[in-house]
Each structure stands twice: as structure tokens, then as C-alpha cells.
Amino acid sequence: MHLPRLRMALVGFPDAAFPQTLLRARTSPAWEAAPLDEADALWVAGPSARMEADSLVRVWNGDGKAAVVLHLNTLERPIAFTAPIADDRLHAVERVDLRSPASVDQSLRRTEQSLRAVLLQLGMAHQIATRMTTLTAHTYHVMLKEKLVAVVSVPGRIGIELSTDPEALAEARWVARPAGANDFPKWFLPTSFAECLWLHASRVPTDLLPQRYRTAPLYFRCVPRVPQRLVQNRHYAVLADLAAAPRTFAELQQAVGLSEQELAAVLTVLYFAGSITCNPERAARGGGGGGSREAVTASELRNSMFPAGPSGGPEATMPAPLEWRP
Q: Among 2, 41, 134, 298, which residue carries the largest CB count within 10 Å?
């Protein structure tokens, strides 16, 4: 099993061809270059970086482009500055010499260790995606050589043992358990169906959006229960528009101004997070409190993602607060 690639933002490089080549050479796990807002980690060109204030770094990003401003104290992603570093005030930052294979390997190993949670989520998501139609129990204990390595509540929270090899999850047994067996040890990584599948769907190169989502009316279903850092402006725009009224793919594309490929990518992650539906019976409905409806049952998620056939019913959408609620 090959997990989807980790993503590196290349910030301040006049020519990113060489660092991209280094990333492509990495195979376990694999890496790729990505835009800053989609990246798991950052390589910042040392000659382009200047310390503006305490922990505030401004990075020149090319003529005619806006500089990138990074706040090192609040940045939640691993970051390394490439040698040579022009500003002596950046003496305490993580460094990598792209001309030294040993330095690159060491830096990426440290970064991969910091991103272990992401790798585990990607490994779990791959297993969920391949098993989705058969997950009929409330809870599963995932066993690897008779050791408990994960607890999966369908379609809710997930706990994964941190020392687990992400690729080894493909060899694990899923043992059906009752709903009351969903607790997991405190040292397990806490995550969720929505977060794992969001990460998976945003990185798989194949088109995962079902064909019916390109032709049928789309409905707002619930707020995606994922960390806010994953939800970008384009996701908010689509959710807000669908919360106001159902739309087809073509109508939504015109309303939010995204290309066909961009909109398909947005709808794919919202679909896997259970936030949109083609079935008006599963759309969010108005209520006295004006809140959003959560997708909380396994059968609902399976039926939404793998419907048995067309269903009718009145159209129903409603505005909802677009914030993540744990």
C-alpha cells in the first residue's frame, strides 16, 4: 500500500525545480510540492527570509508577488530554512542544506516524525475508504498481530496507537464490537472519520466525486467536523452558498467562481466529510435554534456515499454557522 503524498510548501525560491526534484526522490513516505495553504510542512529559502520582529519573518516571494509573512511562534507546521541564511537573526531556526543529501534526509526524517499523526490518518483513511460499504457495526477494534492499534466508531471518533506503522494498517483485522466498546487509551491519537477522509480525498489523484454530484441538485447537510486549518475560503464559499439554497454543479460553479476542477476538489472533500448530499431527505432542515444537523449514524453516511437508488422528497436547505465544533 502506498499512502498519499505528504505536502511541502516551497516559499521564497526564485527557481523551485531543484527542491522539487529532491522531494520527488523521497519515496517512503512520498512527498510533493504544494501551495502554502495546503502544505503539511515548509521549506523556506534562507536567502529570501528576513526577521521583521520577534518571531515574525518576511519572505520575498519573487518580483511582482506579495511577500509571505510567517509567525514562527504560531505556525503549527514543521518549517526548515535552507542554507545559506542571509539574516543572522534567524540563528535559532531549523536548517537544511539542500546540497547535502545527508542534511536533506535528516531534515525530512525529523519532519516526517512531526507529521506522524497525518501519516496515521492517511493510513486509516485508506482502510476506511476500501471498507466503507461493509462497515455495519457501531465500533471496530483494529488488531495487528493480536495487538489493539486502533478503535473506530462509525462514523465518529477514531483512536490510533501512535507507534503503529501507517502502512501496516493494511494487514490489520477489523473486529466488530458493540457501541459501548468505543473507548480507547489516552495515549492513542484522537481523530475522526471526517478528518481522515478529508485528508485522504484531498490527496488522491483519481476523481472520487460520484457522477451524480455533477448532475443532481446539491444540498447542504452539516458543518464539516474537521479542524479549521483544513477548511479554506473556497470550502466556506461553497458551504455558504448551498446553505442558502440547493444548486447543481453548474449553478454552484457560476455562483462561487471556481473552475470545474477546483469545484470538484472542494465537493469531494465535503462529500467525504458528510457535509453535502444529493438526497433532499438527508439535507439540513430548519429548526427553532437555527443550528446545523450533524451526520451521526453509520447507515446515514453509508447511504449518502453509496445510495441504493434515487430518492425523492421535498427540497430543504438552511443557513448554518460555518465553524468547526469539536
A: 41
d(CA 306, CA 162): 31
Q: Which CATH class is domain 207-305?
A: mainly alpha
- Which ranges in the chain are annotated with CATH 3.40.50? 6-114
> Which residues share a beta bridge with 44?
11, 81
What is the pTM (predicted TM-score) of this model? 0.80
Q: Would you say the C-alpha torsion 158, 163, 167, 170 has a positive or negative sign?
A: negative
CA distances from 32 to 7, 8, 17, 135, 250 (A): 5, 6, 12, 32, 31
Quick one: fold of 6-114?
Answer: Rossmann fold (3.40.50)
Q: What confidence tens digit (pLDDT) does each residue in 151-187 have? A: 999 888 999 999 999 999 999 999 999 989 999 999 9
Using CA atoms, how far apart are residues 249 and 265, in angstroms rounded to an integer? Answer: 12
